[in-house]
């Protein structure tokens, strides 16, 4: 006898008949469905788990990059705060120097210039 290779619906019907055929064809179909469904679900589950792990790894990489950038931004904010403080200090210094210069000029202009008396103020 030459073996016959069946495919498609003929293979399905043959498998169901082999498993239970005849009047219990529904039971055979359920068994065959369960036999083929289990490995298919298992392979699908492995693929899904692999994709989930890949996505989780990418998410953790992104989180690490975001944390580095947050640290950079915080460092820049601290630096800018220091620059602001120093700018305020220098502005106060210039304002004080300006006030002292105005006062000294007003004193010099209030009376005629005397080299011996006013030279130290002028310097």
What order do the helices and strands follow?
Answer: HHH
Helix content: over 70%
Beta-strand share of residues:
under 5%
Tally the helices. Answer: 3
How far apart are the first and last residues' alpha carbons, in Å?
125 Å
Q: What value does the Rg take, in angstroms?
A: 46 Å
The major sheet is characterized as: none
Strands, total number: 0
What is the global morphology? rod-shaped
Overall pLDDT metric: 78
Low-confidence stretches: none
Backbone structural class: mainly alpha
Provide a descriptive summary of the structure in words.
It contains 3 helices and no strands. It has 123 residues and is mainly α. Helix 1 (8-19) crosses helix 2 (25-110). 1% of the residues are buried.
